[in-house]
Amino acid sequence: MLKKKKRFFIPAVIAAATAFLALIGYIIIIFLGHYVIDEKKLILHASSKIVDQNGDEIASLYTENREPVSIQEVPEDVRDAFIAVEDKRFYEHHGIDVKSVGRAVFRDVLAGGKVEGGSTITQQLAKNIFLTNDKTFLRKTKEVIIAINLERDYSKDKLLEMYLNQLYFGHGVYGIQAASHYYFNKEVKDLTVAEGAVLAAIPKAPSLYSPIQHPGKNKERRDTILSMMNDQGYISAKEAVRAQGRTLGLNVKKTSETPWFDSYIDLVIKEAESRYSMSGEQLLQGGYTIRTSLDSKLQKTAYTLMRENGYFPGTDQAAEGSAVFIDNKTGGVRAAVGGRDYVTKGYNRVTAPRQPGSTFKPLAVYGPAMQEDKFKPYSLLQDKLQSYDGYEPKNYGGQYKGQVTMQDAITYSINAPAVWTLKQIGVDTGKSYLDKNGINISDNGLAIALGGLSEGVTPLQLAGAYHTFAANGMYTKPFFIEKITDEDGETISGPKNGKTRVFSGQTAWNMTRMLQQVVKEGTASQGSYQGDMAGKTGTTSFTGVPGATKDAWFAGYTPGLTGAIWMGYDKTDKTHYLKGGSQYPVRLFKDIVTKAEESGKTFKKPENVKELGSPIELKAVKSLSARYTFKAMGLITIQLKWDAQKDDRVVYRIYEKKDGKDKLLDSVKGKGSFDIPYANLFSGASYKVVPYNTQTNQEGEGTEYVQPKLFSS
């Protein structure tokens, strides 16, 4: 009896001890799992993408080309393909498949080496995410601990989702969604069972089973997987045979070579870092969508035309240039080309300072002069050669008219009046308006009027400042990024693109009308453009060679776009300079906006703004008749008649000379006659008529004094 008890007691104790030890071991595994598992590693790196204003992707940013996808998006047949080949008891085990491990060990022993792995999908996930590739007993132990804890904390579907999203599919592609896009150019939800098997064949050895590099080996393994799916009951024999009879069906997504986007993309990344405080690592790994103001057609048009040598009058074909265009409504940058042969992360001339030349006149001089109510568009400005404490600005061609209107000074880019006007309003006043327009300079001399700066301004700054005129006097700092959203569609907070009032609507409109004249008949009249355009040219000379140009500019705007184009050499010397001036960027500007279908539009005058009339051009009054006549109630009347011009805005001043003294008797507007009632036949008075311009407060050439003739009917 005692022997019987011992016989039953010992196995029971062993069983109990084994169970106890197993329980302790499980508790230890669970306990250790909290230390081994770093849940931050479960957040997979995802590709970020940059999209244009229409939402079309123009670039992908990544350290690992991955597009995480929900398991619900993966067709069941595709999931089954991976389960069939990697872990057929995935939905049955709890992280460790004892049967598979035993079979693997048995076959390894028979073969005298390792021929079969026994890792489950969960173990592979644990290894790929948390562990290194070193083959040690401790690593395998950690793998088991992590796998068991992952099974405890996550559902099977979630584990499979993480597994499919972290797999490497070769060619720099991570995750099943990115693989579907790369190999088949379609969403993962649209994959067939045969296509799913093609992808399932790759991860075991991405180089060996690449369907691009080794299509035969991939097809062989694909067909094996389809047979396994049939054996395991996932698909019928008929479905397997039909799928095996198909070609691989690849539609490889070619990496598009789009160099015209490169400089814009670099500026987007720079803005994300500076204005959104996002590091490069965040952008490469965060799975963000960066929506920009980019107009892809305009960008490509600008890039393509800038590569044509005919637009660049350099001493060789190495002349450089940059262009930037801003949306008038939003202030967002719609195109930016940083160089004719720009390379990624290269020298971006959109943000490189250069001497702006006469493009500075409206910003530093004439806009402020009107806003301060010191001068008006048709005010007369002094046009003389004079010295300002040793600074002696000269007009191109050496011609001086004594006085010119602001309109003419701008239209024909006359230098002397610009400097004189800045002197009248004060350098500090001019600089204060530059500051409001996003241009901060350290210079304090009158040379500012002509763009003579110690450091210069960038094309982006210049375009932003001219955008103020196009935007009814409101300045908006140019921006590239409209918004950034994360993987969940949540918007990442960034800076608000605030507006600053710089000029009144009236000042901005007056400037627009004057700058239109520059394009119609002034220094920017070269080239062809259908529609309204306003703008200003700028040229700086290279003194090392007579007649050579260092910088050539055009900054201007249409009803929809504001832009700036610069041309020159990165380093100008006696063998590298421009042989032509601002007419070249003018022509390029017009051709870009025309080919980008921005032509044919007209400026619309804002409400509560007075129209700036066309300039009054006085014509000499050469003939005057003066006669005495009888009129009812007026008794003897002197009737004056002269040759009035068609512009009825002209005022005619009537002067009387009597007893050797001149007197302004009266004035009439838009008429060619004037009556003087109650005339004295014996006064001896004589009369003359002089045209007067109310825009400039200036008289023109009038008649000589004429004495009235007696009694004419």
Secondary-structure blueprint of this entry?
Blueprint: H1 2-36, E1 48-51, E2 57-61, E3 65-66, H2 76-86, H3 98-111, H4 121-130, H5 137-153, H6 156-166, E4 173-174, H7 176-184, H8 193-200, H9 215-231, H10 237-244, H11 262-275, H12 280-285, E5 289-292, H13 296-306, E6 320-327, E7 333-337, H14 361-371, E8 380-383, E9 402-405, H15 406-411, H16 415-425, H17 427-436, H18 459-470, E10 474-476, E11 481-485, E12 491-492, E13 499-501, H19 505-521, E14 534-541, E15 549-557, E16 561-568, H20 583-595, E17 624-631, E18 635-642, E19 651-658, E20 661-669, E21 673-676, E22 686-693, E23 698-699
Parallel strand pairs: 1-5, 3-4
Antiparallel strand pairs: 1-2, 5-11, 6-7, 6-16, 8-9, 10-13, 11-12, 14-15, 15-16, 17-18, 18-21, 19-20, 19-22, 22-23
Helix pairs in contact: 1-5, 2-8, 2-9, 4-5, 4-6, 8-9, 9-10, 13-20, 14-16, 14-17
Give your account of this protein's structure:
The chain is an alpha+beta fold and 713 residues long. The protein has four domains: 1-36; 67-244, Penicillin binding protein transpeptidase fold (Orthogonal Bundle); 325-595, Beta-lactamase, CATH 3.40.710; 624-699, Immunoglobulins (Immunoglobulin-like). Strands 2-1-5-11-12 form a five-stranded mixed beta sheet. A five-stranded antiparallel beta sheet has the order 7-6-16-15-14, with helices on both faces. Strands 20-19-22-23 form a four-stranded antiparallel beta sheet, with no helix packed on it. Strand 22 and strand 23 (698-699) form a beta hairpin. Helix 9 (215-231) packs antiparallel against helix 10 (237-244) and helix 14 crosses helix 17. The chain is elongated. Mean pLDDT is 86; it is low at 19-23, 25-36, 104-116 and 132-137.
